[in-house]
Structures are given as C-alpha cells and as structure tokens.
C-alpha cells in the first residue's frame, strides 16, 4: 500500500483525490491537511465520503507528511514549492496540482503567477505530468508538476499534428470552454449559482496563465515556432471541458491520413479515445472519469483542421491525471483505480 | 460469472445498468436488446461506454435471453410480464425495473397502469425488491419487482417510525422532489431542457402511481390503517431525489429515542446512512452511488417529525437497487460492484 | 415624477429595483448608495443596465437621500432601522426590503435576527407591505416593512382558507422551495454554482426566520390558534419560488366551494392569478414578473387541501412587491411599471 | 394599431412574439394559428400569458390572415413561401422567421434546406431583415427574411472590420455558442434536460445552414473573397448566444482605431452596445431583451483581433429583430415595444 498525504484537501481537486483514493486498491490515506479545518472529520465537510474516508483534517504542522510515500498538493500556487524541498529530502515523492512545477521558464512563471520561484533547482528536475507525452520521465521522477486542465486538452489535441509537421504551428487558435468547478471552491461572487447559471462568457481573452505552459510544451514537439491564441470560456456546468482547436494545414494530407495520425499516436493509451472522424464528443461522456476523447473535422474539406477534445476537468484535467502519474511513479498498472465508467446521464 | 441480459437498454435505467455492469466483477453481459436499434453498437448510442461495453443491441427475437442467468427489464410497464413466463420456465431469473411485479393488488395495478395483468399467478411469487425490508425473500426469489424510486425513499424513511408505532399512520404527508431523469429518455416537450431548466413544479398532485405501491408496502409494517398524501415535484437537476416526510407523533418520544430507532434499524445496512439528528442531506452526496441518506428533524420540538431522505433516483432508486437484488439472488456479497463513491462536486 | 433613492443597490433585490425603475414611467432615480462601490457607474457593475441607468453608486454619506420622495432599503437586516428615523423626519417615505419593520413582535425580531430593535416606536406605525391583505394601510403609510418572499406565498395561499374558517389552523404544513437568488449576492461557498447546481436540499428545517413573520400575519386572519411547520428548500434555479401548502379541512366543503373562496378573494387582484382547480403552476410562468399564481388540489378527495403557489422571489417576493407598495403610497395606478409579461422559456 | 397575425405560435419564437406583442403599444393581435391546437386558448398552452393574451389558436384555414396588416411566420422552413404569395397579393406584409427568404442564392437554399424554392421571384424582392445593415430596404419592404440567430452575431461582429478592409476576409473563424432554445420546441431526445444539462458539445462542425447565409451577407460588405469557418456549440442554458470571432489583421492598425471602427459603426444604433475594449460581455446581460453587445480584444497585441458578441437568441436573434423590422416597415419608432431591460440575475 502506498501511504498518501494530501495538502489542501478542502478544494475540488482535493476532494476529487479523496474520491479516487477511496476506491484505489493500493492507496492508504495517511493525512489530509487543512489549517482552517484542523480536527474536522473529512466526511463532515464532504458527506459524500461518509463511511469511506474516516480521517479528519489535520493541521499541516501535525500531519507527519514526511512519513508518507507521496504527497499531493491540491493547494493554491506557491504552497508546494515552499514545502517540497523538505519532503523530497525526506524521501517523499511530490505531485503538485498547482503551477509551481509546470513551467521551466521561471520568468514566465513569475510574470503570470506574480511570485518569485523559491526553488529553481528543484524545478529543473521536475517532470511535467502528462503521461501520454512524457511517460518515461514521470516513471523516474520524484517531483511532478501536474498539467493545467486546458493545457492537457491543447497538448493532446495538437500533438499528433505538430509532430507530423502537417500544420502551420505559428497561428494555432484554441477556443476552450470549461465547467465552473475549474474556478475552484472559493467564496467569490463571479461563480455563484445566480451569476454563472444560465449564462456564458469568455474570460482572460487578452491573456491567460495556461498559454505559456502550453506554448512551452508544444514547443518540444516541433522545431517550428509555435504561436497560440487561447480563449477560455465559462460554461454553466459543474464538470467538463471542451476545447475546439483550429489549425491551418501546411501540407497536403487527406482526412484518412489525418485520422491515422491520431489513431497511431494514441492506440495504446488507455485514457485517450480517438473517435471516428467527424464525431462530436460531448463533455458528459467523460464525466467523473479519467477519459479524454478526441474527434477530427475538416469543414468543407478546406485547409483548416478542427480538433475537438473533451475531458472532465477535475479528473483527466487534474486529480485523475495526478493519480495516473502516481501509478507510474510507483510501478503500478497505470490504470489502477482509474477505470471508472463515465457517469451518463 | 453471472450471464446477464438487459431488455430495453436504451433508456436511463438501462444505460445505468450498463454502467454498473461494466465495473461489476462478477457479471458477463450477454445481450442488450432494442428492437429499434438492432445491430447498433451500444457504445455508439452511449459513447461514455466506448471501450467498456463491446456488444451491440440485438433484436429481442435474436437475443437468446434464455441462455442468460438473469434478465433485467428496463422497459415500459407491461413488457416484463409478457416475457417473464418464458424466461422463468427456462430457469432464468427476472428482475423488472418497471411496475409489472410491484403491486400485489391487481385491481390497483390495472387502475393505475391501465392494462390488464397477464400473469397474476407469477405476480404472487414475485418478491418486492427492497433489500432493507425484504432481504430474505429476495434471496430466495426468481422474480423481482424492483421498487419505484419515490417508494424506496418513503418506505425507508417511514419504516422505523411505523414499526415502532410512534406516529399517526393515518395522515402521512410525503413531499417529494425528483431530478428530471426520473421521467426517462423519451422525446417529450415537458422534459426538454428549455422547459424543465430554471423551473420548478409539482405534478400528479391529485394522484400518482407510486401511492398505491407505497401504501401496500407500508401497510405491512403496521397494523394501523395507513393514509398517505404523496406530492411529487420536478427539480431542474439530472439525478437525485429528495423526500421530505412529515408524520405526527402519536406517542411521547424524545429526539434521542427517535434517532435511535433509525440507527438501530439501519446499523448493518451498507447503503443506508443515518446522519446526525438535524442534518440536511443533499442529493449530490449520493450522486451516481447506491447510497441513501436519512436525517431527522423535530421543528420547534413539536409533535411532528420530519424525515429527510435523499438518493440517486437512477441508482438506489432503480438500477443500483436491482443489482443489489441480483447480488442477493446469486449469493454474492450484497455490495459487489456497488461501492462507488458519490460524485461530488 | 417620484424621486427615488436606493440604499444598497449592489445586491439582487437592489438590481431588480433598478431594472424595474428603468422601465417605470413615474420614477426618477436620484441615488443608489454603496459605500464600497462609491463612484463606480451602476452599469459597470451591471452591464445589463448599460444605457438605461446612467448614475454611479454614491457613498451613503453623500447621497442626499433626504431630497428623495422615497428611499428603498435593499440592505442587510438592521440598516434600515438605523437610517429610517432621519429620513422620515425629513418627510421621506421609507420601504425596507429587509426584516426591520416586518415583525411587530420585537422579542421575536430580536431572537431571530440577533440584534436589538433600535426604533420600536417607528415599528408600531410601519405597515406590512402585502397589498392584497393590507392595501389600505399601505396607502396611508410612510414606512413599509416589505414581506419576506416565503411569507408572501404562505399568506396568499392560506388566507382564503383561514378567513373562511374551513381548515384546522393549528397544523399547517408549508413545504417551500426557492431559487438560489433568494440567498442574495454574497460570496459564499454554499451558493457557488458547483455546490448548488444539480443538487437539492432542505435547510433551516428546525427553524427559519420566516416562520414568526408568517405566524404573526396569519394570526390576524383567524381567531383560531395558528400552528405552522415551514420547511424551506433550495432549488437549482436562479429565480422562482414554489410553495406546497397543506391543510386539513375542518369543515365539510366541496371542491367548487374551495375554488370559489380563492376566486372571490382575488378576483380584483391584478397580480394574483387563481388557476383552474387541479392545475400545476410552474415557477417559470412568473419569471421576471410581479405575478403570483395559485392552484388548488384535493388528493383522493380526502380531508386535506393542497395549495400550490408560485412567484418570482425577486419580484412579487421582494422588489416588485415593494414597487407595488410605492405605487399605492403615491396614489399611482397600482400596476404602474409592473406589467411585464413573464419570460418563458 | 397594427393588426398582427402569427402563423405557428406554439414554438419558442412564436411565444416570444406573443410576449413582445402583449407589451407592444401599437399592436393588436388578430390571430395565432396552429393546426394542431385549434381552439385551445393560447394562455392554456403558455400560462405565462394568462390575462395578457386572450385569443385561442385557430386553424390556418379559419384564421382570416388576409385581414391582418402583417403576418409573422414562426414556422418550420418551407411554410412561409407556400403562403406568402396569397398574403402579399392581399396587401398583407410578411415577415418570415425561418429561412425561406434569407438566401438569394437559390441553389444554396435548396442544398441546405433540402426543398425546392416555390417562389423565386418573391425571393428577389425580399429584404434581409437586419436593420443595422439593411435599414432602408427594410423600411420599403413588404416581405422580410428575418436573419438566423448565429448570422446576426457574425455579421454585426465582422461588418466594421470588413467594411474598413483591415482584416484578411478569406479565413474568418467564428466559434459560436448557443443556448438550447435555439433548437426549438420539438420533442427530441438530444435536447432533453437530462441530455443537454451539465454538458457541452459542438455540432454541425463539418457544415451548418447558417454558413451560406452569413457568407452571402458578408460578401456584400467587401470586395474581397470571404471565407468563413463557423463552428456552433450547444450551451446548457435556455437563452443566450455568444460568438467568439477571430480575424487576422491585414493592415497595421492600433487598438484605439479598431475600437473606433465599431463605435462609429454603431453609435446611433439603439440595440447594439459597443463595450469598452477588452471587456467580456456575458450572455445574461442581454437576457429577454433586444440588445446585442460587442467587445474587442487583441491578445498579446498580436495580428489577430477577437470580437466577442452576445445576444438573446430568441430576441435580437429572432423575434425581437422581427418586431424591429415591423416597426420600421410601419413607420413606427424603431424601438417601440422593444426597450425591455435585460433580466439579470
């Protein structure tokens, strides 16, 4: 059994980790920290876990995280980099679901997250936790920067095209839509039911933190200069992410060959489903599961390919992906504890 | 492995059975019938099942249901009673999720479902599939009438009070609220998103089919005459049911004793959670799980007890309960394949 | 033109007043106060008002409210009673949408709102702002306590029955359901989209502030002792309230006579619609309008009558009702500026 | 008073016309036809109209539409062109909310709508009902093809850029999102609450009827060849449309000049609101109103401009726009009966 600790278990990625671990056959939950809720049983805050998670939140000071095999940070940006050095020194692996170890470009990190990076040398050894594109490094890593939700869809959607060199990498347009849980469990006006329900809006159109992360990763897949215009939108649904990715074709390629690029790329991937050409994946077909689905379109057989990507932002876009990384780091079957069938309807 | 067939796999209780079976370790899915979709892969209609359910819908005529160990009917009322005799004769167990084998009172059945009952003698041997109140009969049964969603909440909510004889059984008021999936997957105006969203209404206030079923079962729990006023409402959510049950106390009893009635009644039940006195259970704490949660209130310490009951109408209210019955009928651990943690948020 | 001021224009009842006033032919908006948003154009916070409301929020200190003809308080409980004396002394009428002037029973006020009442003598002259039951007093009043949303439905639903003396007043059960906007525009976890959406729950079952208000008012309609069990629930919709009211009949009365009680009571009321006996009113049929609709049921022709009442909690349940009072206080046609057709779908 | 008839009053654009007309000071509703609902009071189907619309549906055969001044067709494609000749011959003006008179390119019409056009000569005289771009023709017209909902947003969003010649017209990308009411009031599985709620998907990505209409109209605004990639998506909300329009800049132009193009183009338009540069308009700021709001972005000050456009798909995207045309055709103030303030929250 892997002894697991969670720092920051009160947010949505935290409770999603708890849900997954409660059904994971190789995990023993050791500690869930919350300074504010110290002593409160986890299942009191989340009655969905009654009878399934027996421990209480503990103060970070008392949590004995160094006795864990791995600690997940489901915390605001900046927390993991403060605590990771001590844990790693004690032989504990670390998986950060925030941004502290995602961006190798420290200047970009500091610009977008508005804080200095406190351990640049650790950052260098951190593995970017997207198994489909970085599996071997994850297996060997003791420190993971878990990808952002939007970047996961953009990378898996563009990767086969960029690797094959069939698109103009300089003018990618990613029009992305996320469920409201992506905003986290924070007391804020903008994500109140009465504000976000029966409504649709874009946000961060002039610039969003997930652009530099995505650009850095996409740049590894091609020698061409990558340019990305990323537009996030907020959808009145709890979970789910839909990315509509546009790319101009730079080479003559027919639709069957396009489709083959994706099917070949992901044929052995348990969590990436390439649907038939021309399909319209729905976010709900991934709800509460670690699946990500992709479908290709070529409107009017023109020079633009449209890649549709859906996932559950809290699972493949966050906590499920983190557990997938953990499985790899500890030599488990990659799918262990992650084979939940999506909840539909 | 139990060989399972599903008649009518295209509705919501059907696809929920498919979701549960895809994760059930002791089930081998043999056939899913749909006359209309004969030949279509199940996962084409429900892409959430891609890679998890490999078979196609088959016409009822070709489905070889007699080779199954058990057949579930997730069909409109009237279908199961037409096919059950042949299956039972062939040694196949039958679980009907519709109303054909719920009501022993044939006159009531015929009044409310507006069709004659075609096999009254089979009806007599059918077990009512509510394990918490009828477990031993279910274990021995070859034919199950799976309870309605509303009746499940009303019975489990009122049972400890009726058995203890502490309430006035003659004037029960059950104000119940259901998510829209309870109306099924039928092309109808009234359950369109644009009709049912951002809206709330009662329906069937002057009389609803679930009243006679509930009355018949509640009557078994007490010698008193049971009177029930049942008011269903439609909530703009997909899954979930919340029953607010009112009863006047007929005996002097304090709150601790009331609470003890429920805790004692359900202390060994894996799927019934009695929450602390005065709790407010939320439907989402049962979402996509087989859990049912109960909490008691005594407003102003007056003479009325209020019982709040929540469940997922498609799981404990339908397909999960049916699988719970199957587990019992085949001597499996009752919780096999049903221990999914509720999906929250 | 009536010169109107609004104290606390940033909440939902405040912006609803602004929406109504922007279309009210006899109102000139003088000031909208918000200490926090001083100087911000109202239409910057609420772009729905761009081009329709030209003024900015002003600090309460600078708002010159004493130059208004009437000031509405769309504020937390306790604000209006602090400022009302000065305004009234300056000849300004006051309409409070909070609870400061609703309850004549000061002990009850202080128990439920947990603050001393600062002007009991003003409270005595305050008129309870429910025109259908208190029209003449409102016309003459200079100070209005605008009813709570739930109490409006309970009073208009029970009044004809209580006045006629046909029900047992001692054991009323009101099972009520409200849209989320009733919780106000406050940064709170419990009303986040990801918490309140796709979910249903009761709250305050053991006791709620709207009980004493309703009891006090219902008591005026009958000499019998009134007992009320009031259970509020939260519905995942923005606007709308549905009250399901139960009462045992104390006299022999047929359904036509019951229906006549309501039709007679409300035949001249522009904002109360008595639907045909046995109807199921939907909340959306009142959306964004000042209409309240009522329908009667008599399940199984038994001894219990069920009254279904729907309204928009922000309009007839709050701001629209307040404007209705204003119209009466200033001698306008009662319906002025309030004849918006409900928005459906 | 203008005598108005509506053919097909049972769908969402029909009931929205009824809602608007019930508050329009210059309209007298003469007839609302529905073959299926002949004789049923309109307010029985739509209780939101109780007390506001007194007439019943009448069979098209009896409706005496030739006595109207104007007839609106809120019908499926193909109905208006069958009946328009007789009405026009009788001196009745016709406004079709479907596609019969939108596309001058008959081949495109027949390809996309899969029916022959029965009156090509009438089509030639039909005015395209987008007042902001075609006001003078509408004023003189007796026959209007009311624009599609998506095309309205795309045209008003791209028009200033195309007219000024500052963008590459050959590769426009319009990523559009619509509320579910856009699918109409039809009994269909795909738009059931349980299918469309808590879900997001694209549809018609490989080709959609609104492309040829938009292309034909955009072509009038520029001598350049226009190429458009249009991707519609379905949002779990009732009303609202959000179009995210991308265009590569073909000329050196700064952001202030871009903004000025839009402010100049729409400075006298009562229903088009150009928001400050960099704003994020929300669909709900137009809910139940005829307003359309636009905001510009220039991500990273790069070579791509992003135009965000929101409207209520049933009002400015359909019925409100049709009434706006009617006002122009009959010499009324263009805003008559259309100045409803958006409903927020």
Automatic annotation (TrEMBL), chains A, B, C, D:
Subcellular location: Cytoplasm
All residue ranges annotated as the Semialdehyde dehydrogenase NAD-binding domain in the record: 3-141
Reaction(s) the record says it catalyses: N-acetyl-L-glutamate 5-semialdehyde + phosphate + NADP(+) = N-acetyl-L-glutamyl 5-phosphate + NADPH + H(+)
UniProt xrefs under SMART domains: Semialdhyde_dh
Pathway assignment: Amino-acid biosynthesis; L-arginine biosynthesis; N(2)-acetyl-L-ornithine from L-glutamate: step 3/4
Gene3D superfamilies per the UniProt record, alphabetical: Dihydrodipicolinate Reductase, domain 2, NAD(P)-binding Rossmann-like Domain
CDD domains named among the record's database cross-references: AGPR_1_C, AGPR_1_N
Main location, first listed in the record: cytoplasm
Top-level division of the source organism's lineage: Bacteria
Keyword NADP: yes
Family indicated by similarity: Belongs to the NAGSA dehydrogenase family. Type 1 subfamily.
Function description: Catalyzes the NADPH-dependent reduction of N-acetyl-5-glutamyl phosphate to yield N-acetyl-L-glutamate 5-semialdehyde.
Name under which the protein is recorded: N-acetyl-gamma-glutamyl-phosphate reductase
Species for this entry: Herbaspirillum rhizosphaerae
């Amino acid at each position: 059994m892997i002894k697991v600790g969670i720092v920051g278990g009160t947010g949505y990625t935290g409770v999603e980790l708890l849900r997954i671990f409660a059904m994971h056959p190789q995990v023993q939950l050791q500690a869930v920290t919350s300074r504010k809720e110290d002593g409160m049983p986890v299942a009191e805050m989340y009655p969905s876990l009654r009878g399934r998670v027996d421990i209480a939140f503990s103060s970070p000071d008392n949590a004995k995280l160094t006795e864990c095999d791995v600690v997940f940070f489901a915390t605001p940006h900046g927390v993991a980099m403060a605590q990771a050095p001590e844990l790693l020194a004690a032989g504990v692996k670390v998986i950060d679901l925030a941004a502290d170890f995602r961006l190798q470009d420290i200047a970009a990190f500091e610009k977008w997250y508005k804080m200095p990076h406190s351990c640049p040398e650790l950052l260098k050894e951190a593995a970017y936790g997207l198994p489909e594109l970085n599996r071997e490094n994850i297996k060997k890593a003791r420190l993971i920067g878990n990808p952002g939700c939007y970047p996961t869809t953009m990378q898996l959607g563009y990767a086969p095209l960029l690797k094959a060199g069939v698109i103009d990498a300089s003018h990618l347009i990613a029009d992305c839509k996320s469920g409201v849980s992506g905003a986290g469990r924070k007391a804020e006006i903008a994500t109140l039911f009465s504000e976000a329900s029966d409504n649709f809006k874009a946000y961060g159109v002039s610039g969003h933190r997930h652009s530099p992360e995505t650009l850095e990763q996409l740049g590894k897949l091609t020698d061409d200069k990558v340019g990305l215009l990323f537009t996030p939108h907020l959808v009145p649904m709890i979970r789910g992410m839909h990315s509509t990715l546009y790319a101009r074709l730079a080479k003559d390629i027919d639709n069957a060959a396009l489709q083959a690029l994706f099917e070949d790329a992901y044929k052995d991937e348990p969590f990436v489903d390439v649907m038939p050409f021309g399909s319209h994946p729905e976010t709900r077909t991934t709800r509460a599961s670690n699946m990500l689905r992709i479908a290709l379109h070529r409107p009017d057989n023109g020079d633009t390919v449209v890649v549709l990507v859906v996932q559950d932002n809290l699972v493949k876009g966050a906590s499920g992906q983190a557990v997938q990384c953990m499985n790899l780091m500890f030599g488990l079957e990659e799918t262990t504890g992650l084979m939940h069938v999506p909840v539909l309807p």
